[in-house]
Design brief:
459 residues, mainly alpha, 18 helices, 6 strands, binds arginine, Fumarate_lyase_fam, arginine biosynthesis
Amino acid sequence: TANQMWGGRFAAGPDAIMEAINASIGFDRRMAAQDIAGSRAHAAMLAATGIVSAKDAEAMREGLLTILSEIEAGEFAFSTALEDIHMNVESRLKDLIGEPAGRLHTGRSRNDQVALDFRMWVRDQVDAAIEGVQALMKALVVQAEAGADWVMPGFTHLQTAQPVTWGHHMLAYVEMLARDLSRFRDARVRMNESPLGAAALAGTSFPIDREMTAQALGFDRPMANSLDAVSDRDFALEFLSAASICAMHLSRLAEELVIWSSAQFRFVRLSDRFSTGSSIMPQKKNPDAAELIRAKIGRIFGANVALTMVMKGLPLTYSKDMQEDKEQTFDAADSLMLALAAMTGMVSDMTANREALEGAAGSGFSTATDLADWLVRTLNMPFRDAHHVTGALVALAEGKGCDLPDLTLADMQSVHGAITEEVFGVLGVHNSVASRMSYGGTAPARVREQVARWQAVLA
Ligand code: ARG
């Protein structure tokens, strides 16, 4: 049988394969709440402008509310033949209220309807991402405050570089996440314009009030160009881009947790709640959550690339290609929210192993730069010469199988005669970090200032 929405010019219904490739109800039912909110705003506007009667609008409103509760209760019978969420809702509205249902689509098209629903869905996800990122930042600040003066090795190339503090390392991620937060917030400002009322593509001859629907749905204003309004998916791409960068940050932290929780590092102990065991090796405690967070970037960035590819060659305005915007975005959003929640749980629950951190901080000649700086400061040596002398001292210690503080003064003086006992004062890791007082440096005093700043920002 021909389609109930556009059957007028069709003699036959679609082939089963046509229906299968065309239907989106399997996934776009996730936008049911947005679809109904949009229709309610549209119905109220149609009555306010006199395009439909107040009585019809009231019937639409009640019918739409009934449908929403049916969907929420899991009692709604979704139909693939009805293709998508928009037509499923409208068809059910016709069952419920009869003739007035047919007036709801006045001055509207599925093109502006889907643009609206999807935009509102993405906007909700942006808000959820903002909350999720803030929760993780708070968990990291708690760790930073506790360990503002715990020393650990700082790495470059994953080789011991200079001692840093645990708090400083935690706050490095807080800074990254703060930029993620600002990217989500920026994207939200740009996406917060309503496409509703663009109709199919050209606007409508009915005297609709786009300001009214925009305001009712929480938008700052209606979009200014109807062709753009039904064509644009930038809002989803911006969300996916911000999500990709955020997921990349989560992946780096996850990688550090995987390394740090290993028997070789023992920098952190993950809680039982956020680790798993092995079915064969009884000693194992695996950082699966961190590994999965590390992997989620693949799906999220993949969605970003996939949607960019879908959009890149499309002529204006709507093409059915654009129906492929949703599944990828849904999956990416789900992955991001789960990754944020799991990371927040792991970070809140993990315990830093202070002794292991401090032990590792002093190994690998981590205070060699402090020694070179001392030669510059005390002996007025050019830094390049000091670098050379320190290199020789490191080679000497390495040859003796000891660390820099274990060399005797005589050892030191065999490399450079002017070195005095005072040098031993700068070879300890605590001295080292305490001396890094430059703005943004790792000194505990600096870390505490930053902790206080973030506590105020996140309060
Ligand atoms: N299900 C469609 C989508 O997701 C809705 C818009 C359909 N519009 C149209 N003219 N076929 O994009």
